[in-house]
Each structure stands twice: as structure tokens, then as C-alpha cells.
Amino acid sequence: MSGDAAGRAASIDSSTVRRVAGLANLVLTDEEVSYYQRHLSRILDYVGELASIPRQDVGEFDSTTLAFALKPQERLDQTQPSLDPEVALVNAAKTSGTTFQVPRIID
Amino acid sequence: MQFEPIIGLEVHCQLATRSKLFCSCATTFGVAANHQVCPVCLGMPGTLPVINTLAVDYAVRLALAVGAKLNTRSIFSRKQYFYPDLPKGYQITQYDQPYCEGGEITVDQNTRVRLTRIHLEEDAGKNLHGPDASYCDYNRAGMPLVEIVSQPEIGSAVAAADYLRSLRSLVRHLGISDGNLEEGSFRCDANVSLRLKGTSKLGTRCEIKNLNSFRNVERAINYEIQRQGDILEQGGKIVQHTLLFDADSGRTAPMRAKEESHDYRYIPDPDLPPLCLSADRIEKIRKDLPELPQAMAARFIETYSLPDSSATLLTSDRDLAAYFESVNSKVDGKVATKIVANWVIGEFLPVATELNWDLAKPNIDAAHLAGLLILLGDDVISSKIAKNVFEEMVKNGESAPDIVERLGLTQVTDQSSITALIDQVIEANPDQLRQFLSGKEKIFGFFVGQVMKLSHGKMNPALVNSILTEKLAQRRE
Amino acid sequence: MSDLRPFSLSAAEISQRVHAGDISIREVADFYVQRTEAYASKLNTHLYWNASNIAAQVKDQDSKLKSGLKLPLAGVPVLIKDNICTRGVPTTCASKMLENFRPPYDAHVVERLVAAGALIFGKTNCDEFAMGSTSENSAYGPVRNPWNIDYVPGGSSGGSAAAVAADLAPVALGTDTGGSIRQPAAFCGIYGLKPTYGTVSRYGLIAYGSSLDQIGPFARTVADTALLFDVISGHDRRDSTSRAIPPFQTRNGLGTADISLEGKRIGIVKEFFSAGLDEPTRQALSKAVDVYKDLGAEIKEVSLPSLKYSISAYYLIATAEASANLARFDGIRYGQRQEEAGATLRDVYQQTRSHGFGTEVKQRIMLGTFVLSAGYYDAYYAKATAARRLISTEFTSAFANVDWLISPTSPTTAFRLGEKIEDPLAMYLSDICTLAVNLAGLPALSVPCGWDEKGLPIGMQLIGPPLSEEALLKGALAYEQTAKHIGSRIPQF
């Protein structure tokens, strides 16, 4: 815990930081865990102000609702040429034939 | 203790569009690895999804056919997890606001299975496994799917398979999917739990993934019912698992890789505005809805006076039904509909199934089969010859008149030729004649057989019968 | 030999003189290649540029010109922020993750620029994945402000802003998720426009917060801002959030602009003039408001109380979206990959992502992951979207009474390099004036309006209702022609 947050419970503890990092497939050193715990706690404390918003008054909001309505757009069922497989694979670190190679997956 | 199984099914059905759900790549099956991919379905940075309008129409068609509630505004969400077959690290699917809720599938006159929901989503790619590495092919990534979720109310493995057959027949009738299990365009996951008979509380369920044939659905569910029953009998507890069915051993086993914490962190996809379905669009799709299997079977019984079993079988597949109707209209009343049905069911279907014909474009087209049946109806050939002609058709696809002509199979109806041959046969078989005259009437069949054999089956059987009866009677005198 | 001198020509003039045969595209290119060679490394504005690639483009555009095509950006060098895809040309997002990534496609805006006759002159440095307000969070070192190289140019589009301010190109593209065009424009003393959400296609923009991101222009004059915006705007079928509208023609509108603002109502946003505002910025804004008054506009004070939620709402929504947007970087299909012998799939994921992403990017991914994780969605993300709706509604009400709103672009002028990087919350707070605009999807323009005592530029922000870009540009032009700041000082670097 950083000094300025002493006396207050952290919004996020170190095991949560590790769990969240795991969900995002990040590995953190111990120093990084404490760095992010400190920072994320500060941010989460700050955004706690939103708790006072009466959600039922404004209703559910989906992320595409903006000051104006976006008209949904659809495309016709028409095909276009796919990428040349060499081009599709050119940026990959490891390939085999025309596939992308990864360490063996255990099902 | 008495347990009863409770089964719920989730079916992933690939929509038969030409292009993928969110990009313009083709949906052809069996293309070489990563030959049907583009920046969008590879999840390359900066690319964006744009929905295929026909996929939406097909999904709506299904919703209307099962009598479900259509949500005129639904949301695409991102379901997040890391797996190499998932190019963006999330799947675009529908979560808390799907386009369709409720509805039911009619299995037969007495059986209906209620649906929880249907939603639209994109398929993932495919991982191939070698001894030292795995390989990713994204041809399938972004294929358009509807996921059809049944209520957990199916009571047996057989009933589950029946439900799946009905659902498959339905999507094929609707023309929205080829329902091909082998190619993975109709895939099933089964949720199985047991509960004490007479109680209503559901037990812990296990999900069996990716069952690729109706037979395996039955086997896997039966195995799972047995497995869970054994555990419960011994006072054990069922652990919630995702299972894979191994068709070779006939057993289910827990999956390891995807087992860890399912925290999918759904978020509405900001790249896709809500899917809004206008009343006009829904009405237009409703108006164009094809005849559904049950309605079609009822019509066959009513119009063609077919027995229930024939009507049900013929309408179990839209293309088969269409084929039957096409043959029937082409025989133009010269052959009884019942005979047409018997031929389609008894001769055509077994061959088509065995040779894996596409029923929409079978190797024997409707006109050819109709031509054969007309020859039969006009007594040009006997039904025995007709079967031979049919076999010839299977082999080389010639028309019936051509085959009959080529092989000289035209039925002989000329009385004098028949009489001459019959006389010849009677003369040649004095022993048999004696037996017949001494009262062994069964010998009659022997004479018919000889006549047919010598004439290569071309003699009209009815005429052979009557003339032979007459001739033998004369001998008796 | 041409008479090209630094800071002497606008994009509009280059195109006009190229069409007139007065100068050649090659002369323009040579001039800017020399400037790039001389100053790009000093300011660290460029992540990629290549003289032979530019020479090839000169040939292409020349032959188009000779075929008689009318090209609105004939021979105009344009710099592209490095989170915008350029076909076959490295696009890194200033991240190690995409060190060697060459997209097999151009962003929609790049296609439009090339079609309009522009020369794609290079890719500019920025905060990694556009996450930052200083352009210090780059895996390739910080960008420097041409007005004082010990100061940051702002961010995240700092490379584009600094390069245009230093005339390494007349115009550039940036991207704006929470102020990433407007704030660096203000810090570098140039114009920067964040268009209405949906007016510029995001196809080819590597997403940070998809519901907030927009691409927009940087320029040293209002006319050039308008010119570049017109070229990149308009419908694109590859972006489902692109509005079905034709390209804008704001430039035509400006040509006939009557700079009188009689009858215009301008709202001063009370919440943006409260505590935390630097004195020089307050004074510059106050003078600018006086200019508008003199031009005949009616000035009204406007209050949008929900603006206080904008920082919280922004950081929750942007990071939630970012956590999903950045999940695709796994080292399998593109980008760098960390794989030691015997590594499992999970090792590859973890090592690749831990090594590839910088500190701030990881922080935002984790924040977004946390707020979407089981049990927290309603407390954070859902509340943030509710706040977003409140803010959006308040803007709509405000625009019933005023034509546009005025605020500072940033409460302060540029920070010293390293000054704020250790305190993320302080950094986030400095975005107070710009974030709400993205939450509401509105257009906003940063207009240079003076210098502080250190000689660092000050920017004012004009915010309009959806699709009011032309009105905002006219408002800015009226100020530009009256205040006559442009060209009155030139950065020394």
C-alpha cells in the first residue's frame, strides 16, 4: 500500500491484480504487482464517484448509443477474393505450410 | 433410487450464405488451409466487421418457423477468451439481448421441444494437432452460425436424436443450412443431468461437446446417463465438467484445456450498432417462408392419399419431397401416386443414400424416373423389367426408353407370340405337366418362370397368366 | 529551383501551385525530405519514412496529374500517425508488439489521401496504442515539442502535431479517443479537429476505444484543416459505424465565409473554467472570447453538471473496450512473439504480451479486464455507460440554446518531459476538457489562441453539435482572421 492511501482499504488487492493479469495473459513481477495495485486502486477509488449515478433514471446504455443514432448497416451476401495465403501468413512469427504454428495444444 | 435424465441441446447450425458473417470471404467447405481468409476474419488490427444481410434474413426465417419471439433490437457482444482458433481474442456473438427468444420444434404429432433462444454468432477457426505442435487454419473463422438452445426438457437419448433430426430437417426445408453433420455445418453439444424421479430440482449438469452424428449423440448421452447414475447410486456427487465424447471407446472424458475459469468478460461490441429488424423486413420474410415439414406431410396425406409413414419420410427432407412431387407431376396421372411414392422410397432413396447423391441434383433426375414409371404404367415393361431398367439408369444415367430400346426390353403383349412360347414350354416339360395335371397346382409358377426366362422377362405377366391358365385347362380336358 | 521556404506554404497553396505548373511535385517532395532529414530525429516525430518510397509516390501522383486529374491534395506531403494502417509499410502503434508489422491493406483514410494526390510522407510517433497524453509512452522514445524540446508535444498524436508545428509536413493525421488530436494541437500551437463520431471511417485505424476513436486532421491553418477533413470524410461500407453521408465540403463554405458572427450564440462551459486552470490559459481564453464578442456573437454561460463524471466514465469505457481490442495481440498471426524452447501455448501468450506491451498499456488492459470481470460489470462499466448517457443528454440540451461551446483545450500548456508520467491519475485529470466530447461523439476543434510566458502555445476548444464541422471551422476562421496569431511566431528548435 502506498502511504497516501494508508488507512483506507485498497480497492484492489494483490491477488486480484494477479488474477486480472492472468485473465489478460500478462505475467507480472512482484514489483509490477505492487505498482499496478497502487495505481489501479487510486483509479478505482476515483471512479467510485459513479456509484452515485441513479442507473434506473437513465436506463441501460449500449456503447453505440451516442448523441445521435447510428443507422445499422449491412452488407450484401457477396464474396470477394480472399488473401493470397502467402500474404495472409507474411506477418506471422511461425508458420508451417499454409498454417500458423503454435505450441501443441492439449485438449 | 430412480433417476430420470434431463437433456438440453445446443445446436450450432451454419447458415448457407455465400460469404462469411462479417466479411466477404467465401464459405466453401474443404478449401486448403488459410486460403479463405482476409484481414477481417484473421482479426488483423484496424479491421472491422460488417454484417451479412442474408445471414440475418436466414436467422429471422428460422425464428418465424419455430414461432419464436423476435426482438426487433438485439445486441452483438464480444465473448472474450484466449484460444488459437479465435483470431480476435473474442467471439462476436449475442449475449443478454439475442435476436430471438422462445419458440418450439415439432418432433412429431405428440412431441414438441421448447426453445430457450436462438442467436447469431461467428464460428471460430480450426486447430490441427501434430505430435510436437498445433496448427491454426482460419478458413472457418467468421462462418455464420445460429445457435439454437433447447429448454432442458428432453427425457432420453432417443428423444434427443429425434429432436435433432427434426431440427435438421427444418433448417434444410427452410433452405437456410445444408445441415451437413460431416462437414460440421450442424454441430451439437448436449447438457445432461439426472434428477430423482418425481422431483423438479435439476441436478448438476455436464456438457458434452461436438457430437458429430445422431448415433454418437445417442451413444454419448446414454453413456453419460449411465455414468452419472452410477455415481449417484453410490452416493457420489456429479462434478460440473465439459466433456468430450470419444467415438472409438464410446466414453466421455473431461476436457482439460478450456477448463480453467470461464470469465468471458462480455462487452457490447462497439464496432456493430444494434441489430434492428423492421416490421416490413420481418413481414417480407414471413411471406416468403417455405412450407414447413409438418404442413407438407399433412398435405401429402390429404392430396396424395399417402400413408402417414410415407408422407413423413418423403417430407423429412425438402429436396426429397421436391423430387417426389416433381416425378409425380411428370407422370401426369399415368401412374398411381402411391406407386410413385413406393418407387421413390423403395428404389430411389436407398440408392441415393448409398451412393451419397445430392438430393437437390440426383444422378437420376425426376424426368428419367417419371419416364420409367410411365413405361411401367403403359405396360410397355413389367415391374421386374422396370427394376432392371432402374439399375441401368443408376449405372449410366440413360433415359428409360433408351435403355428399353437398347436392350430390347419392350414387353411382348402380342397374344400369338405368347401362346407359341407357352406351347413350347409345355411341350418341353412333360414331367411337370404330369405333376400339374395330377393336382400339384403350385407347378403353375414353374411354367410362368420358364416363359419369363425364355422371353427374358419381356412377356406381359398378366397375359402369360391368363393364356397359361387357359392352355393348362385345355390339357386337363 | 523553387522558392520554397519553411512555414511559407499551406497544403492548399502547394496543391494550387502544383496544378498551375508553378512548382513540381518533386520539388515539394525534395524540400520536405530535406526538412525531415534535418529535424525528424531531433524531435523524434517519425517512426518510419523512406525517401525512395516517397520518390515512387511522386512518380505516381505526377502521372495522375499529367493525365489531367484534378487532385485536391496534389503533391501535398501528409504524415500519418502510426496507429493507422499503411499497406506494406510498417505500422507499429509505437509498440514493441507490432515492431515488424506491415499490414496488407491501407486504412480508408490513406486510400482517400492517395486518391486525392497526397504523398504519404511517413509514420509518426505517438503514445503506445494511442494511450497517453504526452507521447512519452512510446516504445521508441518520447516526441519533443518544437516550441521547446524539453517539453512534451502532448499526446497521444504528438508526433503528427509536432511535425506539422515544425513544418516537416504541412498537414498530418492523428486519432482522437479522449483528446489525442486536440490536446497535442493545443500544445504545439496548431489546429486539430476531432470529427463527429462516424464521419471518418475507422477502417484501418488500430482500435483503442472503438466507440470513442476518430481520425482527424492537423494543420497550421483553418483552410488546410478543412481541406484535409473534406478528403478523409464520408461513408465507408467497411465500417459499420460510418455514417451514410457524402464527403464534407467545408472548404467551399469557408471560401465565402462572412466573418461576422452576428446572431451566433456561444456557450462558455462553466465547469471547464473552474479550478486547475492555469492563469495564462484563462487569460488567453478570456481574450479569445472578447474577439468573438467583438465579432457580434452573443456569449452565454452554460453549465453541464455531469461533466464531472467524464474522467471516470471515459477511463472505464475506453479501457474496457481496449482490453477486448488488444486481446488479438497474441503473437500467432502477426506481431512479435516470445517463445523459448519447450514453451507451452500459455507461455507464448504470456511472454509475448508481457514483453510486447508497455507499462501504461498493461495498466489500461488490466483496468478494462477488471471492470468487465465477473461481478464488477454493473458497478463499473454499466455505471460508466449511464454517465455517458447523462453527459450526452446535457450536451444535446445545451445545443438547443447555443451554436457552439468554448473551453480551453487543456487546463495547462505543455508539461515538461517526465513531469507527470509517474502519476497516472494526474495525467488523466489533465484531459478533463476533451474527454466528454468523445463520450458524446461530438465534433470539436482546437484553435491556437496565444502563448504563455514560457512561449508555449495555448489552445481553445470549439465544440459543436453532431455534424457541425463546417460551422466550427467558420468560427475558427473568423477568429484566425481577426486575431492574426498564425505565422506571428515560429518555433525555434
CATH topology name of the domain at 11-255 in chain C, in short, is Amidase signature (AS) enzymes
Q: Give the total of beta strands of chain C.
A: 11
Please tell me the overall pLDDT of chain B. Answer: 91
Count of folded domains of chain B: 3
* N-to-C span of chain B: 79 Å
C-alpha-based Rg of chain B, rounded: 30 Å
User: Sheet with the most strands of chain C?
Assistant: 11 strands, mixed
Q: Major sheet of chain C: order of its strands?
A: 1-3-2-4-6-5-10-11-9-7-8
User: How would you classify the quaternary structure?
Assistant: heterotrimer
Largest sheet of chain B, in brief, is: 10 strands, mixed
Per CATH, which architecture of the domain at 11-255 in chain C?
Alpha-Beta Complex
Mean pLDDT reading of chain C: 95
The number of distinct helices of chain C, counting runs of at least 4 residues, comes to: 16
Number of helices of chain B: 15
Number of strands of chain B: 18
- Fourth CATH level, the homologous superfamily of the domain at 11-255 in chain C: Amidase signature (AS) domain
Structural class of chain B: alpha+beta
Query: Looking at the structure, what is the overall shape of chain C?
Result: globular
Tertiary shape of chain B:
elongated
Query: Strand-and-helix sequence of chain C, N→C?
Result: HHEHEHEHEHEEHHEHEHHHHEHHEEH
CATH class of the domain at 11-255 in chain C: Alpha Beta
Structure keywords:
heterotrimer, B: 477 residues, alpha+beta, Arc Repressor Mutant, subunit A, 10-stranded mixed sheet, 3-stranded antiparallel sheet, 15 helices, 18 strands, 19% strand, C: 493 residues, alpha/beta, 11-stranded mixed sheet
Any overview of this molecule?
The complex is a heterotrimer of chains A (107), B (477) and C (493). Chain A has 107 residues and is mainly alpha-helical. Chain A is 35% helix and 8% strand. Chain B folds into 3 domains: 3-285, no CATH class; 293-407, no CATH class; 415-476, Arc Repressor Mutant, subunit A. Chain B contains 15 helices and 18 strands. In chain B, a hairpin with a 2-residue loop joins strand 8 (104-108) and strand 9 (111-122). The longest helix of chain B is centred in the middle third of the chain and has 20 residues, at 214-233. Chain C is built from 16 helices and 11 strands. Chain C is of the alpha/beta class. Chain C has a domain at 11-255: Amidase signature (AS) domain (Amidase signature (AS) enzymes). Chain C has helices at 11-20, 25-43, 51-66, 108-115, 158-165, 182-188, 222-232, 250-255, 279-294, 310-325, 345-356, 359-372, 381-398, 424-429, 432-440, 469-483; strands at residues 46-48, 77-81, 119-124, 171-176, 191-194, 214-219, 265-269, 298-302, 404-408, 444-451, 457-463. In chain C, strand 7 (265-269), helix 9 (279-294) and strand 8 (298-302) form a beta-alpha-beta unit. The longest helix of chain C has 19 residues, at 25-43. Chains in contact: A-B, A-C, B-C. At the A-C interface, helix 1, helix 2 and strand 3 of A face helix 10, helix 11, helix 12, helix 13 and helix 14 of C.
